[in-house]
Amino acid sequence: MPVATEKQIIEVEQAANNVWHNYYKEIFSPEQISYMLKKYQSREALRKQLSEGYIYYMLLSDEKLAGYMCMLRTDDYIYLARLYIKAEYRRQGLAKKAIRYIDTIFSNPEFGLLHINKIRLKVERENSFAINVYEHLGFRKVRSEDTDIGGGFVCKEYIMERPIRSVDI
Q1: Contacts of 159 (CB under 8 A, 6+ apart)
Q2: Tell me, what's the pLDDT at 76?
Q3: What letter does residue 2 receive in the DSSP assignment?
Q4: Alpha-carbon distance 166 to 124, whole Å?
Q5: For the chain, what are the domain ranges?
Q6: Which residues of 108-132 are buried (b: 16+ CB within 10 A; e: fewer)?
Q7: Which residue ranges of the chain lie beneath pLDDT 70?
Q8: What confidence tens digit (pLDDT) does each residue in 42-68 have?
């Protein structure tokens, strides 16, 4: 479900706080988690990203918010900026469904987007769980990147890519 209302923005912000504080505590310091949440996943940051063309989707399971994803269309690829699933909903195929949804949109000739032929994402190099999930979904590491995100913090990431696959509709 696309995020469009203020209520949905608040729900995504709350889901981000839930996921990031529970999941990233083994990778980032509490200070870095707080900094990144404010910079990238606060209501203000979400509103700004939506105004810049990012598209957020709420991932639902039994009509409950199980997680969210965010993507940005570039000229030649889809940038999957976020794919987060709450702990209690992991290992239920939601990531696979999210990627299949992207495949469905960008492999359908009716939408006129066939020139976009790959999905690209960034993942922390220490995030072995997510790396394994993405590799299982067909993503491959293409390079490493260290990004200064401000506040004295650096993200050490892999850039991963996967071709968009045709889906029978």
Answers
A1: 120, 121, 122, 141, 142, 143, 144, 145
A2: 87
A3: B
A4: 28
A5: 6-163
A6: eeeeeeeebeebbbebebebeebbe
A7: 111-112, 168-169
A8: 999 999 999 999 999 999 999 999 999
Q: Which two tokens stand for residue 64?
A: 């409950």
Confidence at residue 169, expressed as pLDDT on a 0 to 100 scale: 52
Q: Which residues pair with 124 in a beta bridge?
A: 157
Q: Which residues of 140-165 are buried (b: 16+ CB within 10 A; e: fewer)?
A: eeeeeeeeeeeeebebebbebbbebe
Q: What kind and span of H or E run contains 128?
A: helix 128-136
The closest alpha carbon to 129, from 26, 59, 15, belongs to 26
For 36, 38, 40, 53, the CA distances from 152, given in Å and listed in that order, are: 11, 15, 16, 28
Q: What is the CA radius of gyration of the chain?
A: 16
Helix or strand run (H / E) with residue 7? helix 6-23
Task: Classify domain 6-163 at the CATH topology level.
Answer: Aminopeptidase (3.40.630)
Question: What pLDDT, on a 0 to 100 scale, did the predictor assign at position 10?
Answer: 97
DSSP class of 99: H
